[in-house]
Amino acid sequence: MTADSDKVMLIACCRGDRASQEALVRLYSNLVYSTVLHTYRAKGCHCPDQDLEDLHNTVFLRLLERRCRRLRQFKGKNGCSLASWIRVITVRTVIDHLRQTRDVLSQHSRLASDELLNLMKADTPEPWQLLDQHERGRLLRKGMEALQPRDRLFLKLHCIKELPIREVAQIMKLTENNAYSLKHRAIKRLKAVVQAGPMAKN
User: Fold this and answer.
1) Which of 10, 109, 152, 186 could form a disulfide linkage to 104, CB 3.0–4.6 angstroms apart?
2) How confident is the model over 91-119, as pLDDT tens digits?
């Protein structure tokens, strides 16, 4: 696109024109996808398909939220194109996500929280009850590390930081219904890993 066409699209998007916003998403989706993958590779990380989709959607939510606040910040100075600006927003979004994910893994000392332990007690085979606190904590850490990054992030926010589902949904850009579904799936996966631990010892 030319600078003039960028300007026309930006003005229409900032005015709330839905067709122009949808056109922006279509036009720059491939750029966002490729930038997410490139940033993961640059950080020495593998990008799961689910993260790729989630981050793609998060980038455009950030661009269009609050009456397109971030699009309004684009000035086009020093030869910076709209594509370059969107690439910058994408890189920042990916880095923020990776920092959050690493923060989850750094919380080993807090993983055996009461909330997570209570989740594991329900419908769990007897061997889990026979383990000492140290061993349960080790299995919880192993289980958390085996989860998808956004499952780990959800459990950190909801179970460790004890944020309500509604706040977690807002932070992770989910509907409340999707947040409850994510909670169910994350706990199910965590239980599968943890249950395999004590049973494997017998």
Assistant:
1) 152
2) 999 988 888 766 544 444 444 444 555 55
Task: Enumerate the CATH 1.20.140.160 domain ranges in the chain, comma separated.
Answer: 109-201
Cβ atoms of 152 and 104 within 8 Å: the answer is yes
CATH number for domain 109-201, candidates 3.40.50.720, 1.10.3660.10, 1.20.140.160, 3.40.225.10: 1.20.140.160
pLDDT tens digits, one per residue of 14-50: 999 999 999 999 999 999 999 999 999 888 888 888 8
Mean pLDDT score, 66-86: 84
What's the pLDDT tens digit per position in 150-175? 888 888 888 777 788 888 888 888 88
Q: Cα Rg for the chain, rounded, in angstroms? A: 21
Q: Domain 3-104: which CATH class? A: mainly alpha
